[in-house]
Amino acid sequence: MNVLIVGSGGREHALAWKISKSSRVDKIYCAPGNAGIEEYAECVPIGVLDFPALTAFAREKEIGLTVIGMDDPLVAGVVDAFEAEGLRVFGPSKAAAILEGSKAFSKDLMKKYNIPTAGYENFEDADKALTYLETVDFPIVLKADGLALGKGVLICNSLEEAQAGVKEIMLDKKFGNAGNQMVIEEFLTGREVSVLSFVDGNTVRIMTSAQDHKRAGDGDTGLNTGGMGTFSPSPFYTEEVDEFCQKYIYQATVDAMRAEDRTFKGIIFFGLMLTEKGPKVLEYNARFGDPEAQVVIPRMKNDIVDVMEACIDGRLSEISLEFEDNAAVCVVLASDGYPVKYEKGFLIDGLDTVKAKEEEGYYVFHAGTKKTDKGIVTNGGRVLGVTAKGADLKTARANAYKAAEWVNFENKYMRHDIGKAIDEA
């Protein structure tokens, strides 16, 4: 079949790489794609929110499966647009994607169905939010309700910080309409773990665990970003944790969405905090995480097209997911100044060095890149994800940082402590 991938980041590059290995795929297209994806797919200049153009293209090219990588089109209803045209598409409907599209919705869902999460209150009025802040203990967490490129979460250590945060989100609209509503949430402490899963509406099959590093600076300092690196598996995700989550979180969430007449098919990303009182849900995403996909997908043994089709057809119970018995670490190479202000257009050197070592477990997934006459140049805040495997996490981490030095561009910036928690496990 022909496959269309919708998106342009490192996650979509990892998906294109994996889908290209399927014996069932003839040709891959990606809209709009990036310079790295071009190795596996024909990139077409169609915006991810241009649903009429996307569906028309899918019909014209006889696309047998469309894979939606990004949150924006999912929340806006791209799956509904494809299904209305009789086209096969992998991802949740608009009604189901609200699980990520509205933090207020997801918190209310968890409360209603007794899915463990932090205590919270939802606010549509800034004055009421400010009054409420005078009654809480600090630190406290402020969350813009809608999509904010993974950056709409503020951890506030004092009343003054929190008051400034409410102003930033609800009044100054730093995150646009995502801040029309806001969640004020109890601050949880513990180890964070990310668990991706395939879902067919009834059955949930979890993938291997991972852990993201959201802050821009070493030691988890600086501003929130889309993600500066990740590792898989998490040594903190034990059999005991898995048993609890399978029973009280994963299946409970899928059943809750079905009970709300929002049957979920696609990917649910469970962002968890392993607290002293047990695992609790920090957030849901309705698609592969980025950069979590860059460490989870390379370890996956299954033909990913088979799994996606089983989700669409409600046959996921027939699938057993298999992952390599190893580890992977991804280090994001960003443009200095990200996530605030940075320059673009710098020539990238060393990509071929990593590519030549793919058989040894080294990968480079493009995020913000562009092909020009002089070569591939930087074209975003997060530029590349350098991923490496190893027999264990420490080896994978050493390999990833070694490979990160093979790639260079002016303004290159990275964290140097991705996976450092491994050393403390």
TrEMBL record:
One Pfam family from the record: GARS_N
**Pathway, per record:** Purine metabolism; IMP biosynthesis via de novo pathway; N(1)-(5-phospho-D-ribosyl)glycinamide from 5-phospho-alpha-D-ribose 1-diphosphate: step 2/2
The name on file for this protein is Phosphoribosylamine--glycine ligase
ATP-grasp domain location: 107-313
Ranked from the top, the taxonomy reads: Bacteria, Bacillati, Bacillota, Clostridia, Lachnospirales
What's the source species for this entry?
Qiania dongpingensis
Keyword entries, A-Z? ATP-binding, Ligase, Manganese, Metal-binding, Nucleotide-binding, Purine biosynthesis
Q: Which gene encodes it?
A: purD
Q: One of this protein's GO BP terms?
A: purine nucleobase biosynthetic process
Q: Which Gene3D superfamilies match?
A: 3.40.50.20, ATP-grasp fold, A domain, ATP-grasp fold, B domain, Phosphoribosylglycinamide synthetase, C-terminal domain
- MF (Gene Ontology): ATP binding; metal ion binding; phosphoribosylamine-glycine ligase activity
